[in-house]
């Protein structure tokens, strides 16, 4: 067998195996195993398995060496041709003894679909058509069955059809998918006359005079495919085959070329003037790159995986030879190249397919005679002689419009905006071919910048126009700093789009708020927006807030520098320029404070107010923050984040307007206690006194009266039922948050147990409010992200989580075991590396030490962190739990057990080391959620400290 394999290996750089040598090896098996059909089949299968394995290994080795994707795809296709042809000959000649059968009784084995194009990825399906003669012979069907069974045993996914020529033509006329597959049919083995008959009759009986029908079907199919993939080519985990800007878009171009223009290769379109030579070169480069990515993807995953997930992006980047550079890692440079290629594919398919769509557009129904002729006429656009309207699309009045006046490139998009016109494909093609006219003179042109600013701040659909400018390459040329972030991805799970797409989507959200269409989702932003004094500054800041991503310097600071240079060019005043620069430099401030700081701590509000300084800045920063978060990706924004932003806004607004109360905390707490007692007016005097005095200052000053009453009723009900442990749940559909309140005997590891139980139940924690009652109990409220749309479903889920918490606290279940069950079988992601970070600050709060941790997320992490803080004898007063994709930033407001800040440097260092060890090693505490809840000394120490005070 080894000697046979050596003979079968091909020395041809374009082929992986020698087809003729394989035929001889199979003939040798037939001669030595003739007496046993089963033995012969087994020997054939073993040989072909080794041929396949060694052929693919050789394909991988050559791809590693030359990185030529299209060549790799052709090599694998040719290997498949050689194997199928040899197998067909073997079956006909040696298995079924039909070597001398009449010519008109022979079948044709044909490759169709992607295989018909002569390109295959390692895991591609093998699409075959077994073409039968008009009068099939008795041995035809057994031969086909023999071939298929062996191919399946070899592990190939085979899509197959068995038809006569006549059946193929009938099916093709009624099914566009079959018609497309036959368009690419080619003979692999068997009867040439039969294959030629199909090709000729298909051309004359199916293709002829049906070009418009085929084009319309393919364009509709393309649009539907794009809709399913999110209708954007800028997803950070793109589908290489089916996604927008992927291989299927190139296939669509190939199919239409072959069908409509009757060409054999897309390169023939250059001769016809449909594509320029440069565009044809782009086609070739894009095809080769995408095939290289797809082949590496299949080789790395060992299957027909088409989604370029985070787990494989770095491996493919390294396989393709990308190196890290300052500001961009190797994987980010690879993905930027990927999206630039996807953009090129989009340019090619848009220019080509849109032109065909325009040519084949059906005239509006119901218009006849003179009215039809009139409807097809071009009409002038008021205020310009350079552009006209052609069937609802802006077109060029003369071919040299851009060359004669380059400002017309910007004016073209401006006119489309103010007249609400679609774009004529010929005009877009000329825009793309005129990019060299966008030079420094045009960038400094006052009129061009005035028009551009008008587009950015348009009250119609600025995002749509800017996206068209970006796709045509104009935006990146006119604003070179924007060009640097075009197609740039950020290698994390938080951002769903490339940076340029994120910025344009941010502007789209702003326009939605500005036009009054976001009142239900963003009530505060919608209320604030009409009072904004400077729309221009806000729109420019939103468009530019991430323009400096990918640089060594912090992108907020670098972005502010870019704004200071760019804004005067766009016509903004010095005051507006300062405002835009400030907004960009601080664009993450409000989000981070709202999500990672205790908004009930006055120091949080005063520090934030000092940074903001004015109500106008506060309003602008709020809207910019909303736009930024909303544009990150689906599901990132929720009502809870909106509520946090609103709370921060209102508290800061009070401070900036001088509305904060000067009454002491002690007096305000006493007033709150009396208010709670008054709210319990239907209770007995004894119960009112008891339950209103259960709480300390932090609870009385931070929890709304409505929730205090609800908690009092909850505690009273538990006391009457004799329950030491109890949970209560409530849903907030607008906030997309579910609240679980836990009443329990207090102990140091309580929060660790609660958070661990939530993790075991699959709940994502957004926030935690931690309070201790005067009788030594804990009243903790955990906010988890909502999972179900309907309240009854969410309440059922929350009840299950509450029961899990009770079971763990009571010792019925052990926390390490339930977490282990939750994580069992889950594959750990190796794609992201986030070095654990711990910061300890005593300046962020007047009363608490603030500990912030940053690391890679995992199930049970929060439980381990809170458990470690308990081991370190730290009392957690409140926690902010924030997840950005794969990264967590959790903030804990802590004191020691006597209520003091952590000021000793040695102790701070010990805390940092312990927390980093937990984050790095994923240690699970032995006692976390054990069979028995330990008694805590904390209550006695706290009571003693309070009595002494």
UniProtKB/TrEMBL annotation:
Annotated region described as Uridylyltransferase, given as residue ranges: 1-380
Activity regulation information from UniProt: Uridylyltransferase (UTase) activity is inhibited by glutamine, while glutamine activates uridylyl-removing (UR) activity.
Catalysis: reaction(s): [protein-PII]-L-tyrosine + UTP = [protein-PII]-uridylyl-L-tyrosine + diphosphate; [protein-PII]-uridylyl-L-tyrosine + H2O = [protein-PII]-L-tyrosine + UMP + H(+)
Functional description taken from the UniProt entry: Modifies, by uridylylation and deuridylylation, the PII regulatory proteins (GlnB and homologs), in response to the nitrogen status of the cell that GlnD senses through the glutamine level. Under low glutamine levels, catalyzes the conversion of the PII proteins and UTP to PII-UMP and PPi, while under higher glutamine levels, GlnD hydrolyzes PII-UMP to PII and UMP (deuridylylation). Thus, controls uridylylation state and activity of the PII proteins, and plays an important role in the regulation of nitrogen metabolism.
The HD domain, residue ranges: 499-615
Taxonomic source organism: Gellertiella hungarica
Cofactors (names): Mg(2+)
Record-given protein name: Bifunctional uridylyltransferase/uridylyl-removing enzyme
Coiled-coil residue spans: none
Keywords: Hydrolase, Magnesium, Multifunctional enzyme, Nucleotidyltransferase, Repeat, Transferase
UniProt comment concerning the protein's domains: Has four distinct domains: an N-terminal nucleotidyltransferase (NT) domain responsible for UTase activity, a central HD domain that encodes UR activity, and two C-terminal ACT domains that seem to have a role in glutamine sensing.
Positions of the ACT domain: 739-820, 850-929
Catalytic activity, EC: 2.7.7.59, 3.1.4.-
């Amino acid at each position: 067998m080894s000697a046979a394999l050596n003979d079968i290996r091909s020395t041809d750089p374009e082929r992986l195996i020698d087809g003729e040598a394989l035929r001889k090896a199979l003939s040798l098996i037939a001669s030595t195993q003739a007496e046993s059909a089963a033995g012969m089949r087994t020997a054939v299968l073993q040989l072909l398995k080794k041929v396949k394995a060694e052929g693919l290994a050789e394909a991988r080795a050559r791809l590693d060496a030359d990185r030529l994707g299209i060549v790799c795809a052709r090599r694998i296709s040719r290997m498949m041709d050689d194997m199928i042809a040899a197998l067909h000959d073997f079956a006909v000649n040696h298995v079924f003894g039909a070597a001398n059968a009449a010519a008109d009784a022979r079948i044709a084995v044909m490759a169709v679909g992607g295989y018909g194009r002569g390109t295959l990825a390692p895991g591609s399906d093998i699409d075959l058509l077994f073409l039968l003669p008009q009068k099939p012979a008795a041995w035809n069907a057994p031969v086909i069955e023999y071939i298929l069974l062996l191919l399946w045993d070899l592990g190939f996914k085979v899509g197959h059809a068995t038809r006569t020529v006549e059946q193929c033509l009938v099916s093709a006329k009624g099914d566009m998918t079959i018609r497309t597959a036959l368009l690419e049919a080619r003979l692999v083995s068997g009867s040439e006359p039969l294959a030629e008959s199909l090709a000729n009759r298909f051309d004359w009986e199916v293709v002829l005079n049906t070009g418009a029908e085929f084009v319309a079907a393919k364009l509709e199919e393309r649009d539907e495919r794009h809709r399913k993939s999110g209708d954007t080519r800028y997803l950070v985990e793109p589908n290489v085959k089916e996604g927008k800007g992927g291989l299927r878009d190139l296939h669509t171009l190939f199919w239409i070329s072959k069908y409509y223009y009757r060409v054999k290769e897309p390169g023939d379109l250059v001769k016809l003037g449909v594509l320029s030579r440069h565009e044809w070169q782009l086609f070739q480069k894009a095809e080769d790159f995408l095939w290289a990515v797809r082949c590496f993807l299949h080789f790395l995953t060992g299957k027909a995986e088409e989604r370029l997930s985070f787990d494989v992006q770095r491996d493919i980047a390294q396989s393709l030879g990308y190196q890290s550079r300052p500001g961009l890692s190797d994987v980010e440079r690879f993905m930027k190249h990927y999206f630039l290629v996807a953009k090129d594919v989009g340019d090619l398919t848009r220019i080509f397919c849109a032109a065909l769509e325009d040519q084949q557009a059906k005239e509006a129904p119901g218009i006849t005679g003179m009215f039809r002729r009139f409807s097809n006429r071009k009409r002038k656009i008021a205020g310009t002689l350079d552009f006209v309207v052609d069937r609802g699309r802006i077109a060029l009045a003369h071919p040299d419009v851009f060359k004669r006046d380059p400002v017309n490139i910007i004016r073209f998009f401006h006119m489309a905006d103010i007249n609400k016109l679609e774009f004529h494909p010929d005009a877009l093609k000329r825009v793309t071919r005129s990019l060299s006219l966008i030079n420094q003179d045009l960038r400094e042109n006052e009129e061009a910048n005035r028009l551009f600013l008008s587009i950015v701040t348009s009250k119609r659909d600025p995002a749509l126009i800017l996206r068209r400018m970006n796709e045509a390459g104009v935006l990146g040329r006119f604003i070179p700093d924007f060009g640097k972030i075009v197609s740039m991805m950020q290698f994390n799970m938080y951002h769903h789009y490339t940076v340029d797409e994120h910025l344009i989507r941010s502007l789209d959200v702003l326009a939605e708020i500005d036009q009054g269409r976001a009142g239900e989702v963003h009530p505060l932003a919608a209320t604030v927006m009409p009072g904004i004094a400077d729309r221009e500054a806000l729109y420019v800041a939103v468009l530019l807030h991430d323009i400096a991503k990918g640089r060594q310097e912090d992108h907020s600071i670098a972005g502010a520098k870019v704004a200071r240079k760019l804004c005067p060019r766009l016509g903004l005043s010095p005051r507006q320029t300062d405002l835009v620069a400030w907004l960009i430099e601080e664009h993450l401030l409000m989000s981070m404070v709202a999500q990672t700081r205790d908004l009930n701590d006055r120091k949080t509000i005063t520090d934030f107010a000092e940074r903001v300084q004015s109500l106008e800045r506060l309003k602008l920063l709020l809207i910019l923050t909303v736009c930024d978060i909303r544009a990150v990706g689906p599901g990132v924004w929720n009502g809870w984040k909106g509520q946090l932003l609103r709370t921060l806004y209102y508290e800061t607004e009070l401070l900036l307007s001088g509305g904060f109360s000067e009454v002491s905390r002690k007096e305000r707490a006493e007033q709150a206690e009396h208010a709670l007692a008054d709210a319990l007016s239907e209770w007995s005097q004894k119960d009112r006194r008891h339950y209103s005095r259960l709480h300390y200052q932090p609870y009385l000053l931070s929890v709304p009266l409505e929730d205090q009453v609800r908690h009092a009723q909850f505690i009273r009900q538990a006391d009457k039922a004799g329950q030491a442990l109890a949970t209560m749940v409530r849903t907030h559909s607008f906030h997309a948050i579910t609240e679980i309140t836990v009443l329990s005997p207090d102990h140091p590891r309580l929060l660790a147990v609660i958070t661990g139980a939530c993790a075991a139940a699959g709940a994502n924690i957004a926030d935690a409010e931690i309070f201790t009652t005067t009788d030594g109990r804990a009243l903790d409220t955990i906010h988890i992200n909502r999972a179900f749309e309907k309240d009854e479903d969410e309440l059922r889920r929350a009840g299950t989580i509450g029961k899990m918490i009770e079971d763990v606290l009571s010792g019925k279940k052990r926390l390490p075991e339930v977490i282990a069950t939750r994580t069992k079988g889950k594959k750990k992601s190796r794609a992201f590396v986030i070095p654990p970070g711990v910061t300890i600050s005593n300046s962020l709060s007047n009363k608490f030490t603030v500990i912030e941790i940053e690391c890679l997320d995992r199930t049970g992490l929060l439980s381990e962190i809170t458990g470690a803080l308990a081991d370190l004898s730290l009392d957690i007063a409140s926690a902010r739990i924030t997840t950005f994709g794969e990264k967590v930033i959790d903030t804990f407001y802590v004191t020691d057990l006597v209520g003091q800040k952590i000021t000793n440097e040695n102790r701070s260092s010990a805390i940092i080391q312990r927390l980093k060890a937990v984050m790095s090693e994923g240690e699970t505490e032995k006692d976390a959620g054990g069979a028995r809840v330990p008694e805590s000394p904390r209550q006695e120490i706290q009571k003693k400290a309070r009595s002494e005070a």
